[in-house]
């Protein structure tokens, strides 16, 4: 609960001054609530009225800062006022003190004020009627209810409305915060997806361009240079087409460029043929049935990125691509010769984003991913560190075999029943 200010609120000062001036005006014209002949009046005359009036006006200054103290002193002032001719301004200001005590006090104190005022109203109705047995005795309870219980009940209703409005405001703020968090997460996820798509669609062509341009510059053979330039032109045109298709996807519709459909496993044959054209000795073994579109896209991109890494980092030799569909999963395995990049160096620069993208694709499908040096039939278990790829992580050490060392990428993509294409 926020600490209460020590100085009275400016509205409370206005209320106190208005009540005091109103009471002085009533006192000046000689208007009281009881005549001097009333038996309850112990201090007759006009001057005793001013003391409870001034005290009650002073209590109005405490209605927000010290509401309970103001009410207790106000009760004493009202009791004193009942022993004089009385002032209507004093009674009105007392009702405001009851209202403020319920509205601004802590919840427990506000409930006590409301219960006490209600009990006094009942007692003021029942006891006088039981003692005097006249209908007029019921008016005492009515007056007590008007002076005490009605302001308290009004303050309780207003308090509940304020609490409900504050709770609604907090909920709105929390909803806005959660919406902003969701928006940021959605933007981050979309940026990651765009980065994966851009890398997978273009990196293969740019890697081939880098490798063949290096060969064209390093060899003084016109035929070889011409052949390399032909491969460079082919990959440049295809890479430009991939970029245009990606821009079409991002724009949804960009003039005469329609968004391209997501690649499927039916395009693996052309992907492997393209890799062969770039100089890789690739063998494809693909056996699968109907698969969900996300699984096909992830498998295609994993094979595409693995062939790109093999083009950049692998030693001369055969690259094997194998896809096997089991009951509830698709097993993707790409094996390539594992060279000593510490001495030879990669044929094209790498950033490590490829292995990160593959791992993210597999994680989105809640599958498993392994990449590392090993034998041709068993991948090293690791967090995705690649030979020369630059991605951090631990892998099993290279194990020499009669056929040489290999680098294996393996992904297991779960297939959810009822979602096959």
Sum this structure up briefly.
Helix content is 58%, strand content 10%. The protein has 421 residues and is α+β, with helices and mostly antiparallel strands.
Write the layout of secondary structure elements.
Elements: H1 10-28, H2 50-60, H3 67-82, H4 88-104, H5 107-132, H6 138-218, H7 222-251, H8 268-277, E1 281-287, H9 293-313, E2 318-325, E3 329-337, H10 353-364, E4 368-374, E5 406-414
Parallel strand pairs: 1-2
Antiparallel strand pairs: 2-3, 3-5, 4-5
Question: How would you characterize this protein structure?
Answer:
Strands 1-2-3-5-4 form a 5-stranded mixed β-sheet, with helices on one face. It is of the alpha+beta class and 421 residues long. It has 10 helices and 5 strands, in the order ααααααααβαββαββ. The chain folds into 2 domains: 10-174, no CATH class; 264-421, Histidine kinase-like ATPase, C-terminal domain (Heat Shock Protein 90). α1 packs antiparallel against α2, α2 runs antiparallel to α3 (67-82) and α4 (88-104) packs across α5 (107-132). The model is unreliable at 254-259, 341-346 and 375-402 (pLDDT under 50).
